[in-house]
Each structure stands twice: as C-alpha cells, then as structure tokens.
Amino acid sequence: MNPAGTPAPESGARAVRRRPKNRRAQIAAVSAAEFAALGYHRVSMEDIATRLGISSTALYRHYPSKYALFAGELLRLSEVTVAAVSLPEVAADWPAPRRLGYAIDGIIAETVVNRATVGLARWEHRYLDEPDKLTVDGHFATALTELSELIGAARPELSERERRVKAVGVFSAVSGLGDHRVTLAAKPLAALLHSACWALIEADLPAPARPAPAPRAVEIPPRLKHELLLHRAVRLFYERGYPNVSMEDIAAAAGLPSASAVYRFYRGKGDLLNAVFRRAADRMSAVIGPTLAESSSAAEALAKLIDMYVAGAFDERELIYVYFAEFGHVPDDERATLRVVQRLVVSEWAALLVRVRPELTPIEGQILVHAALGLVVDYGRVFGDTERICQRQWVIRLMEAVLFGPGTGQAIFPKA
C-alpha cells in the first residue's frame, strides 16, 4: 500500500489515458485557433493532431476532414453573431437606446470570448463551399439587418444606407480585436469599445456628394517588370486568395513566358507578397514625420493622417484587403519585420491620440487605432469598390468618431 492507502501500480503496468469527455469540443477549439493563426490552407489534420497530442487516426474518428472543422467553426461564429444581437422578450418595453446598447454589449462580449478565431469570419470564409458560404453569409446578413434596425430605432432620422454603414462600422470596430494582440482587462475593454461604437453611431455624416472619379489607370512601362508583377499579383491574390494563385498565374498575368521569368525578380510567391506589404507599411510610416512637422496640433496631425490613409485605401482597395487577409502567408522572418513596422505606426498614431484625449492610456489608444484602421478595409470588403454606398468622406468621419470619441459628430479638424 502507498501512503494514501491505495494499491501501488504493478510494475510494468501500462498507464491508462482517459479520453476527455469534451474531446470534440477540444478538437474544434484547437483547430479553430490554428486556422486563425496560420490560415485555413496552411493547417493540416496532422498539425491539429500534433497540437492535441493525439494520432491522426484518433482525430479522424471525430471529424472526417479539415474542412469539416473549418466550416463548423465558421458556422458557429455566424450563429453566435446572430445570438449576440438578439434581444430578450423583456426588451420589448425598453427604450430604443437601451435596446441598441444591449446589442452592442452582446457583440462586444461574444467577440472578446471568441477573439482568437473571430478573424476567420472576415478573412477566410471565402474558402467555404458554396452551400456553407450561403448559410454563413445569411447568418451574418441577418445580424447586420437586426443591428441596422436597432440603430434606426435609436436614430430614426438616418437613411437606410446610413444605418447599414453604421452597423457595419460597429461590427468592424469590435471584431478588429481579432487582428491584433493588444490586451486590456475585460471591463475597461468593454467600456472602451462600447463608447467607440456609440461615438460612431452618433456621428453626423456629411451629405452625400457625387462620388469621386475612379483613379486613372496607370500604364506601367514594360521595362518595369517587377512593378507589373507586384500589381498583377495583388489583383490575383485579391480575386482568388493567395493559396489559389501560382507563380505560373502571376507570370501569365504579367505577360511573361513562364514562371521561371518571375524568379529573376523574386525568389518566390511569399517574397513577392512581402515586397508589396513592405512598401505599403513603409509608405504609411514615412508620412508620419512630415505630417507632424507641418501640423500645429496633435489633432490636426491625426486628422491629416486619417485623410491620407483613407485616400490611399480607396485608391488601392485590393492592396489593403490583401494586406489584412493574407498577412499570415508572408515568410516568418519577414513577417516579424513587418509586425515591427506595424507596431511603430500604431504606436505613433496612438501617441497622437493620447495627446488629444489624455484620459486614454497608451494601450487604450492602440486599441482604438486598430479599430479605426480596420474600418476602411471592412467597408471595402462589405460594400465593394463603389462609393455610391459608402463614400470616403463618410469613412473619414467615422474613423474620427471612433478615435476622438463621443461628441465628435462633426469633423474634429476643419478640412481646407
């Protein structure tokens, strides 16, 4: 007998590994986290099994394929989104602002709980099979309609288009938590996001104007083949997704005879992607110093940076979408360098914001900056390339509202 009074195990007896009662849920959670971290195409069933410490055979006993795990998580996220904006029966007697506030709090709470995987719904759902995609899209559309109606009840003077733009903005500002790792305690985080969402809803949008003319197509001289490769590659990544584009596809789009011609300029597809992203990050970083130098206040500088960011994003919608959606496919060492540049840019914006709003901590400033930057790509993702639905002046105003907070229904800094 051992000291506890229980029989000692026999020498050489095999230890029995008890299967967790919630094995399926554990598998689903681990696989979802892997998909969110690396992207659907970069994860295999063997990777998931290794992460769980089980064999591939054991994994297949629970789920027939990697796709089943992927589709299951996206379906779950879409159902959670609908539940987040659903009101209890007692809410029928609440005033409209309270009903809307309850839904916003629900979106925030569910996003915080699912922060590790919420990005899948934004960047990876295009890899769903058509029937599953229709189901998931239908759930998100239902949630968006519900939130639009709640916004309309609280602000009945808004047009249907304004309500929908604001509803997309609320989901974007909150779900942006999935795009970064800045952490804040649950209560102050919820309060910060709640305030930002209300500022976005309360912001007065400028009267619709004639859409800005489409940017003039620029012909890239044939001798600048490396520029043409970057441009055509971004378009293909945007249309098909990075994993579904080959070097042969890029060569054909750039008018080159074979993939071997591409390798004269770039070592591989990942190197090409990194070159595009590095240029975008460096451009965004480079304008900060000159903008500060020519501005008389932090508010003025930040307003100018917002204007430039939105202008660049509207002129290169494909690039900004690819930057957010395909970042995980950049080679690991280059991705680390890009993240350093990203953090520096966000920190600079956040430092300006804290000077404008000294009640914010640097961490809170960074969270709001991430939320505001994500608005641009989400508006492009949801509404497409047309400005008939969501004009760039609206996006500028809503970014200002998220950053500068309640009471900034009008632009924080008058435009020239």
Describe this entry's structure for a reader:
The protein has 416 residues and is mainly alpha-helical. The protein folds into two domains: 23-157, Orthogonal Bundle (Tetracycline Repressor, domain 2), CATH 1.10.357; 225-404, Tetracycline Repressor, domain 2, CATH 1.10.357. 65% of the residues lie in helices and 0% in strands. The chain has helices at residues 23-38, 45-52, 56-62, 66-84, 96-113, 119-123, 130-154, 160-175, 186-202, 225-240, 247-253, 259-262, 269-286, 288-293, 298-315, 317-325, 332-356, 362-383, 392-404. α8 packs across α18 (362-383). The longest helix is centred in the middle third of the chain and has 25 residues, at 130-154. Residues 1-18, 215-223 and 409-416 have low confidence and may be disordered.
Question: Which terms summarize this structure?
Answer:
416 residues, mainly alpha, Tetracycline Repressor, domain 2, 2 domains, 65% helix, globular, disordered N terminus, disordered C terminus
